[in-house]
Structures are given as C-alpha cells and as structure tokens.
Write the structure tokens for this entry.
Amino acid sequence: MNAHTAPGTGPDRRSNPPAALAAEAARHPGGSVAEIDHTLISDPNGFVPAEAVRGVWKVDADGRLTGEFQPNPNYGPPQDDFTRLVSTGHFLDWLGDDPASAVRESVAEIVDQQVPGATVRWMKITDEPRFLTAGRRAPDDPESLILTRAALAAPFAIGVDSPAGRHDVLWGVHSIVVVGLDRGDRARSRAWFDLWTELDAAEHLLRSRIAEVEPAG
C-alpha cells in the first residue's frame, strides 16, 4: 500500500476517488493506494499515523483506480498508543506505577521547555523500546541482583500544537536513564529527546548515557 495525500471528496467516495490519486495509482498496478487526510499530518513524507488514513482505493492491472474504496474503521483524530512500551514484558517499575504516563509527561515537559506553551496532542511508541539495566549482587543471596541503573530508548511520534496554532508531527527517540535505584531518595534521572534519530543510533548513545548519570550526593 502506498500513501498519498489528498483532500476529501464528499460522501460519494466509492465512485469518485480523488483525482490526485490517479498518478499514484498508475505507478502501482494491481495494488492499492491510500488516501490520507492531510489536515491530520504536517508532512506527507514523514510519519503518518494510522488514523490519518481515510481508506484505500484499489488499482486494476492497468494502473487505474477501480472506484472500489475500503474505508479505514479507525480513521479520525490520532490517539495515544503505548502498546509497544507496556506489552514488552520488561520490568518497568522503575518508571513508576504508570510507565506510559511517565514517558508521555517527560516528553510533554521537554516540548514545553523547547517551545513554551506547546502541547502534545497525541503520542505513539512506534517500535519496541531498547532497554539497558545494571545492578549488583545481593550480599545475602548471590543468585539475586539488586537493580542500580535502568534505561530505555523509546522510538516515538507525536503531534504537537504550538501556541501560534501550528500543528506538527515529530518523530525520534526519547531516552530515560534512572540511577541510584538502590539508594532511595538519592536516585536521579535524566532524559534525552533526540528528534529525527533512528532507534539503533539512540541505543548506541544509551550505552554511554547510562554510565554518565550519577546518584545524588
């Protein structure tokens, strides 16, 4: 399936595909092309949330739109999706009782710091995060490990509303390191917000970042 932005064409969409999709269809005979609601995205070549796809139009063997339209049942305003974070099975208690909220709040805080008054409309974890942990052997049980450091690099996409009324879709990797997990109130955390960064590169950075942060005091 190939994506192409096009405005809506009214209620009779099955028999009247957007004219802008004809050229895209010609490049994909025998397949299908997606019609995207351009009001929900900022860059057709960037991240496109699944909810921004109105549906797909089928293409015949000669590269022409058949008029057959399959609507997307999830079309509408993009929603938060942290499934790839919370369903990994990794130990996430170091992020608090609600890891998804902790990550979202961390991102929202950084966005507001960079552009005062900007808000995160929606956030999605776009792939399974990468995790790093470190610990020491428990003195009374050599088979047990006391967690001292934990970190994650979570690939994300977010929809951001600026105070000026602009809406942008950003993507990258959000990394969090927490150290001193065995020291109670001396624990310390630090976050990084790497825009336009691939997950492999962020994981490489995480290996050094987890060693850079030291507990309080």
